[in-house]
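Good day; I would like, with your permission, to put a structural problem before you. The record follows directly beneath this note:
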Amino acid sequence: MGANCCSHATALRSGRYRKILWIALVVNFTMFVVEIGAGFTAGSVSLLADSLDFAGDAANYGISLLVLGMGVVARARASLFKALCMLLFGIAVLATALWHLVSGTVPSAPTMGVVGTLALLANVGVAALLYAYREGDSNMRSVWLCSRNDALGNLAVLMAALGVFGTGSAWPDLLVAGIMASLATSAATQILLQARGELNGEQAHAGHRH
C-alpha cells in the first residue's frame, strides 16, 4: 500500500506525465475542431457526440495539469467537476439524438468512416501513453477512463458508419450515440464515487489530527 502511494506521488511529480497531458490536450482540442465540423457536415449524431467528448477531454486534461502536484482534496474536487461535465455530456448526446430522430436526418456514412478512423488513431495513441497511470487517484483514473472510453466510442462510430451505409437509415448512428452517452455516465459515476471517497477519507484524517 505504502509503495503504491509513493509510486502515485512520483507519477504526479513526473515531468513525463505532465508532457503526456499536454500532448493529450492538444490532440483532443484538434480532434474537437475536426469532428464538430465533420459532424455538422455529415449530419451525424455520433460524430457530434464524439466532438463534444473531445472538447470535454481537452478541458479534462487542462484541469488535470492545473491540479497536478496539488493535495488530494484539490485533485478530488477537480475530479468531481470533471465527472459532472461527463454527465452533462451524456445528457447532451441523448438530447441531440432525440432531435435527429424527430427530424429524420440520415448521416453521411463515408464521412463518418474517415473521421471516425482518424479519431480512433488519435485516441488509441493517447490511451497508450496514459496506460501506465491508469491505477492512480481519482483524477488520474478519470484521465485514463476518458481516453479508454474515447477509443471505444470511436470503434462504435465506425460500426455506426457501416450500419448507416448498409441500411440507409439513421438508426445505427442514433444507437451508437446512446451507447456513448451510457459510457460517459458510467465512467462519471465511477469517478464521482472514488472522488467522494477520497474527500471523505481526507476529512476523517483531518478530524483525527484535531
Q: What stands out?
A: The chain has one domain: 2-209. Helices lie at 2-13, 15-42, 45-67, 72-103, 109-130, 138-167, 171-209. Residues 1-13 have pLDDT under 50 and may be disordered. The two ends are 25 Å apart (CA to CA).
